[in-house]
Design goal:
The protein is an alpha+beta fold and 166 residues long. The protein is built from 4 helices and 6 strands, in the order αβββαβαββα. Helix content is 30%, strand content 26%.
């Protein structure tokens, strides 16, 4: 949604492996779920449930506490159902509470109205720049007490599942 290009399965695996050891990137795979079914630890290896990913990058040398967010819901039957908004809430909560992020930025294709809507209307981001040559919009959201309270409210239902390589 925010600018990721489609990758082959082998490319996706290679990228995920490289990110595992990189201190300035964080990626979570988005799994589909039934509204009636809780995700179990055994489901974490179920590749047929993968529908996308959500990432942040700590790549601003002037502000090491700024995270650039990306989200992609690759499976179209899950698009437009609030999945991107939910996983962005969860990722932002993790970035703020566990990593100490104090500023968020996103760069979105200027034709991607769905993503722009999510970031502006659901997450409170403000447009700060347009780059016509890249056909890209930059939106930002500073972490404040109100955002922290909203993130706690939005993610209060979530349970963490410890992941470990077997």
């Amino acid at each position: 949604m925010t600018g990721s290009e489609p990758l082959s399965l082998d490319e996706e695996y290679a990228m995920q492996q490289s990110w595992r050891n990189d201190n300035d990137k964080c990626t979570f795979i988005v799994l589909s779920k039934d509204s009636d079914t809780e995700i179990k630890h055994s489901d974490l290896h179920e590749t047929s449930r993968m529908i996308g990913d959500v990432n942040f990058y700590l790549n601003n040398t002037d502000n090491p506490h700024e995270a650039e967010l990306e989200v992609m819901i690759a499976e179209q039957e899950h698009a437009g159902k609030g999945v991107a908004t939910e996983v962005l809430h969860l990722m932002m909560q993790y970035a703020v509470s566990d990593i100490g992020v104090d500023d968020f930025v996103v760069r979105v294709k200027d034709t991607n109205n769905a993503s722009i809507h999510i970031f502006e209307n659901k997450l409170g981001f403000k447009e700060t720049e347009r780059a016509p040559v890249f056909k890209e919009v930059t939106l930002r959201r500073r972490v404040c007490d109100d955002l922290k309270a909203s993130l706690n409210q939005w993610t209060g239902h979530a349970n963490r599942i410890k992941y470990a390589l077997e």
